[in-house]
Amino acid sequence: MASILRSPQALQLTLALIKPDAVAHPLILEAVHQQILSNKFLIVRMRELLWRKEDCQRFYREHEDSVVSASREIAAFFPDFSEQRWYEEEEPHLRCGPVCYSPEGGVHYVAGTGDLGPA
Q1: How far apart are CA 114 and CA 108, in angstroms?
Q2: Distance (Å, whole) CA 62 – CA 64
Q3: Helix or strand run (H / E) with residue 2
Q4: 46 CB contacts (<8 Å, ≥6 apart)?
Q5: What is the DSSP string of 30-59?
Q6: For residue range 35-74, what is the model confidence (pLDDT) as tens digits?
Q7: Which of 4, 52, 64, 103 would be 69's cystine partner, CB 3.0–4.6 Å?
Q8: Among residues 29, 69, 68, which one has the least CA distance to residue 48?
Q9: Residue 79, preceding bond cis, omega within 30 degrees?
Q10: What is the dihedral of CA 93, 35, 78, 20, to 10 degrees?
C-alpha cells in the first residue's frame, strides 16, 4: 500500500528504542509497531540487538535530549548510516512520496523503486 506524504518541511530523524520487556512479548511488540505506523512515522532503518546491562547504563547516562545527541546515537546503532546522505538522497523522496511499507524489511521505501528498503 502506497501513501503520499506531501510535506513542505523536511523530515526529521528520530531514534526509537523498544525496551526488552516489550520485545519479549510478540503481541506487545506488534502493538508498539502498529502505534508507530498509525502515527504516520516512517521507519527508515530497523535493527535488533542484545545489550548487556553495562551497555544500557552507559547509553542512558550519556543520553541528552538534543539533535547532537540523537545524531551520535543514530551513528552508534547504525554505523553504516550516513545522516547527511540520507537528508540529501532519501529524505526528499520519502517526504514527497509516494512511499510504501515493507512488512518483510520492516521499513518504508520510495514506491515504484522496487527497493524493499536499505540493505
Answers
A1: 12
A2: 6
A3: strand 2-3
A4: 105, 106, 107
A5: HHHHHHHHHTT------------HHHHHHH
A6: 999 988 899 998 888 888 888 777 777 666 666 777 888 8
A7: 64
A8: 29
A9: no
A10: -170
| Cα 79 to Cα 23: distance, rounded to the nearest angstrom | 22
Beta-bridged to residue 110, according to DSSP, are: 99
pTM (predicted TM-score): 0.60
Residues 98 and 42 sit within 8 Å (Cβ to Cβ):
no
User: Quick one: cell of 4?
Assistant: 503520499
Q: How many CA atoms lie within 13 A of 16 on its CB side?
A: 16
Give long-range contacts, CB 8 A cutoff, 24+ apart: 14-20: 14/41, 14/70, 15/70, 15/73, 15/74, 15/77, 16/41
Phi-psi domain of 40 (left: phi exceeds 0; alpha: psi -120 through 50; beta: other): left
Residues in the chain: 119
Q: How far apart are CA 103 and CA 86, in angstroms?
A: 21
Name the grid cell of 117: 528498503
